[in-house]
């Protein structure tokens, strides 16, 4: 069974009297353990689709099933729980809290999952070591390079082994070497069975995935 | 209530602690400084206004009435069974000093030797004349310390008086209806003192100055002198001022004296009971004024905290969106801001509290503010101060919570993407 299944998702934004359709009926299934790249031109609706699937946004119409549960009727609080317990997020601009150290950034969502501080720190340390930052635990984001910050972000996303890892343009702000490191990490995670849905505009990294979903003008194109 | 779930509190605390620890030291110091000033404004404005009046009470107690004062019943001119009452008071272990006084209304005339025309108005003024044991009075009220010119009385002084400065032209508050200040009176000047039909020429030994009216416009002489002049042939006292051991409740001693029968022969009052009526009204009015001024300070402080937290949350809107995006509850994020506000309020109040009781209150007590009618102190009773701290903390919490909630409750994705 697909871990995420969307049926005819439509997303429309209204600005005054003008209505803009960003997604025009997307039906997509992502299997457990699959690594899917969503690609397309700017404005094609890649990120918007990812936001719908990751419950950061709500479609104007259509259905989304996560692990068999139809999520449209879920409350905000239930959606928050889904994001906390089932998903991991990696954003283009790392999205780390500037006043928290690398370790603390990873610890925070683990605390929300009711882990004790000791347990959370142990898991966070393990995740940071895994992304090669075992020696930078106590550094603030401002003391880390872009590549290192993105690796902290990945550590935060994978620390509690999410069912789906969402990555929105994870290499867009990185140099080539750092991008390579991040993609190698994704590959390693995927090899261990991690489901990954990644938005990217770089063909080279798209090719590393199991499947590329091309979007154009709000529709999936072959 | 889910807002106060231990989980939200724990995560909120974790976030708040680190945000405070890594915030700009200058910004934090500035906010805490504002909170200290607000706290002092809350306590000190009222404290000084009320302290002005408390200063009057204090002066009254220290310089005139003692802790408890026994005086004649309203329809009597002396304390009945004065020796018995005095003996009973002296027997109380809580009593540390007593001054027994004879009072009489009289006049004092100056410049009679240089008066050439008997049709001219005499340079004469009415005054309350007090007969005391100079040693006991000095021991109880420190009257000897208020001599600003000349010298204090000795028990065996004969024809010598101390005169209140405010009835002398040199120290009076100017022309006042019904009061004729005495001219050219200095220590050594002879004046005529008249009580009833008896007049005696006496020498001014010293001039006394106090912010307590009874002293500033009074005339003091040794008790035997007054008894002679006023033709008091027994020991019918007018007043007994009593100083109690530190920590003794004056009201309890008043009640004890009343119960033991002294109340049947005399009027027994604590120094608070004996303060002129208007003083309590002024205290209440000043307290209300102080509270009004302080509440403006409170509003300013709450607006300051509101703006600080609002700007802080607004500039972190993206991060707040991300936190919500990765599954941190809105309540935990709001709590982190409320805790930051709490930190500012508690630290500000704490420093203010230390400053108040460690420095301001003792300093102003040792160096009272010199008002014409009182030695002003900073009146800051602990329960009132604690109430104000609670008020400041509560206001700050609300002022921190509202802007945090305004930002945190915005759409998560809009916050992440910086959309309005």
Task: Describe the model.
The complex is a heterodimer of chains A (222) and B (420). Chain A has helices at 46-53, 76-86, 102-112, 117-130, 146-158, 176-191, 203-206; strands spanning 2-15, 18-31, 35-40, 61-66, 69-70, 87-90, 164-168, 195-199, 211-216, 219-221. The two termini of chain A are 23 Å apart. In chain A, 35% of the residues lie in helices and 29% in strands. A six-stranded mixed β-sheet of chain A has the order 6-7-8-3-9-10, with helices on both faces. Chain A has a four-stranded antiparallel β-sheet with strand order 2-1-4-5, covered by helices on one side. In chain A, helix 3 crosses helix 4, helix 3 (102-112) packs parallel to helix 5 and helix 5 (146-158) runs parallel beside helix 6 (176-191). In chain B, helix 2 packs parallel to helix 12. Chain B has a six-stranded mixed β-barrel. Chain B has a two-stranded antiparallel ribbon with strand order 11-12. In chain B, strand 11 and strand 12 (374-376) form a beta hairpin. Chain A binds chain B through residues 51, 56-57, 77, 80-81, 83-85, 87, 89, 91, 95, 97-100, 104, 107-109, 111-112, 114, 117, 140, 156-157, and chain B through 7, 10-11, 14-15, 18-19, 21-23, 318-319, 322-329, 332, 412-413, 416.
